[in-house]
Design goal:
- It is a single chain.
- The protein is of the alpha+beta class.
- The protein has 2 domains: 307 residues, FAD/NAD(P)-binding domain (3-Layer(bba) Sandwich), CATH 3.50.50.60; 197 residues, Alpha-Beta Complex (Flavocytochrome C3, Chain A, domain 1), CATH 3.90.700.
- Helix content is 28%, strand content 23%.
- Helix 1 packs parallel to helix 13, helix 2 crosses helix 3 and helix 3 packs across helix 13.
- The longest helix has 25 residues.
- About 2% of the residues have low confidence.
- Bound molecules: flavin-adenine dinucleotide (FAD).
- Flavin-adenine dinucleotide binds next to helix 1, strand 8, strand 20 and helix 13.
């Protein structure tokens, strides 16, 4: 048996919200914790997020809702723990915020779908962190202010507990002891491997596989799917867990939508189209702005575009109840006749008044290697060719490669639906509809995009990773978006709730296990 180079009570892999919450919880129970991050900067996707943590005023009602949206894809005890956790997670965020002198905002905000219990929900967010400026303090990040603020709070809490953090340190594989339990792991920093014992266990908090093209090809029919914000999540934790026998779930499911694509492949991220708060010039929803406006399909938000396939046909509700949950799903259509995916890419079609009014795209990333701001008047994106202008319907058809007659029919039909304020074709909410008044028209390719994946190793209500027989793998825990409970419909704010609720449980469990672990010679 090979010796270990060093020993910790708990080793946490990945420093986003889940890893931070896990490390804090384990340290608060007296554990000596090592927090690993493979990238030079911590934050993962978490730092780009809106920072909305789902809360509830009634665990009972929240459970009813979660059951309906999970459609049998996660067991009741797990959903109950999440629902109960949502009842108290706001208090935990308050405790964390105190370390930074930050202000927490708690608001009621309905869940995304009108299932029973949907009114029982809310959000906890960090409203303000004194002296903190996201652009100055995290210059490599473009995202929503709430996520950056919450990450600053987590960073402060990790620092005040003197948790050891190693950046640019990648977990490579898990090490098992003679009884098959996970005993430690091999990491790599600066090209040298190192064996670390984790007497209480290893907690995988290293995100999903939104930047792992090979896994997407295997698990998803539609392709390519552009990551929305981060390239560091390449499924490493999923592979490590599989190698020690973990079962997987929810691999098909991701928090996604349709998004614009940069013409320069060095900018690999899908770009969110910006929703419009109302029809007044300058009144676009501030995309970096506050919860719950970012998530809620508020009735004053228009979406002045339609999405058409490569034949010029409109085929979807462009503004479903939660566009960043299901916006990509109608694109998954394979035509066996032509052996193509005629909706990938699709085309967002809008008109002059919309183009003139607001910035149409909102880039998000945690990546020091790119630098892209969407211009306020869309001119730069027009010059770059991300958006294209068509001075006639014929030119628009040529841009898309569609037949003029088909496109004319689509646009005339859409405008009739707008005039009657009812989308008989795809059920889009009338308040979001706006007539296309072109020419000129503007068109941009849209592709499926993934904010974060939900699939990964199955865990139980104690965050213990399970094998294919449903038995916990000793010493192995998971938290955060690696193996999320969401396996059917997503709940906005649900992933961060999982990061903090599941992270706290995993940290406490691993710390407790460390207290009973036998001594081991290094
Ligand atoms: C624009 C945007 C807005 C969002 N807003 C919200 C929101 O308001 N509320 C909500 O609930 N959800 C939101 N989400 C989703 C949410 O941000 C994520 O689900 C959540 O942050 C994931 O947290 P995590 O800690 O599990 O993963 P991450 O934050 O991605 O952290 C995982 C970390 O593990 C590291 N890692 C990976 N492999 C290894 C390895 N081998 N060794 C060491 N480290 C490794 C990664 O580099 C990364 O830093 C949003 C997503 C996007 C893109």
């Amino acid at each position: 048996m090979q010796a270990y180079d060093e020993t910790f009570d708990v080793v946490v892999v990945g420093f986003g919200f889940a890893g931070g919450a896990t490390a804090i919880a384990a340290a608060d129970r007296g554990a000596r914790v090592l927090l690993l991050e493979k990238m030079p900067e911590p934050g993962g996707i978490s730092i780009c997020s809106a920072g909305g943590v789902r809360t509830t005023s009634s665990a009972k009602d929240a459970l009813v809702y979660l059951r309906a949206t999970n459609a049998g894809t996660a067991p009741d005890d797990l959903l109950r723990v999440l629902a109960e956790g949502m009842r108290t997670v706001g208090g935990f965020i308050e405790q964390l915020a105190a370390a930074s002198g930050a202000k927490v905002s708690h608001v009621q905000a309905d869940a995304n779908y009108p299932f029973e219990g949907f009114r029982s929900f809310g959000f906890a967010t960090i409203a303000d962190v004194p002296g903190f400026d996201p652009r100055r303090d995290f210059p490599h990040v473009r995202g929503l202010r709430g996520g950056a603020r919450l990450f600053k709070v987590v960073l402060d809490n990790v620092a005040t507990r003197a948790i050891e953090v190693r950046l640019s340190c990648r977990a490579l594989e898990l090490v098992r002891g003679p009884a098959g339990d996970v005993e430690g792991l091999v990491v790599e920093k600066g090209g040298s491997p190192r064996r670390i014992r984790a007497s209480g266990g290893v907690v995988l908090a290293c995100g999903g596989f939104e930047a792992a093209r090979d896994m997407q090809i295997q698990y998803w029919q539609e392709k390519p799917v552009l990551p929305s914000a981060y390239l560091g999540n390449t499924g490493d934790g999923i592979r490590m867990a599989q190698a020690v026998g973990a079962d997987l779930w929810h691999m098909w499911h991701y928090h996604g939508s349709y998004g614009l694509r940069h013409v320069d492949p060095r900018y690999p991220y899908g770009i969110r189209p910006t929703r419009f708060r109302d029809w007044t010039p300058g009144a676009a929803l501030d995309p970096e702005g506050e919860i719950p406006a970012f998530f809620t399909a508020a009735q004053d938000m228009r979406m002045p575009w339609i999405v058409v396939d490569q034949t010029g046909r409109r085929y979807m509700n462009e503004y479903p109840p939660y566009v960043t949950d299901t916006g990509h799903r109608p694109m998954i259509h394979f035509d066996p006749g032509t052996q193509t995916y005629p909706r990938i890419p699709s085309y967002l079609v809008t008109d002059g008044p919309a183009f003139e009014r607001h910035a149409l795209g909102f880039p998000t990333y945690n990546d020091p290697g790119v630098d892209f701001e969407w211009s306020p008047d869309n001119r730069r994106e027009l010059e770059l060719g991300i958006i294209k202008r068509a001075d006639s319907l014929e030119a628009l058809a040529a841009l898309i490669g569609a037949e003029v007659a088909r496109l004319r029919e689509t646009i005339e039909r859409w405008n009739r639906l707008c005039q009657q304020s009812r989308d008989e074709d795809h059920g889009r909410e009338s308040w979001s509809m706006a007539v296309l008044s072109g020419p000129p028209f503007y068109a941009a390719e849209v592709w499926p995009t993934v904010a974060n994946t939900q699939g990964g190793p199955i865990h139980d209500s104690r965050q213990r990773v399970l094998n294919a027989h449903g038995t916990p793998i000793g010493g192995l825990f998971a938290a955060g978006e690696i193996g999320s409970v969401f396996g059917h419909l997503y709940l906005s704010g649900g992933n961060l709730a999982e990061c903090f609720i599941g992270g706290r449980i995993a940290g406490a469990e691993a710390a407790a296990r460390a207290r009973t672990a036998p001594p081991c010679a290094e």
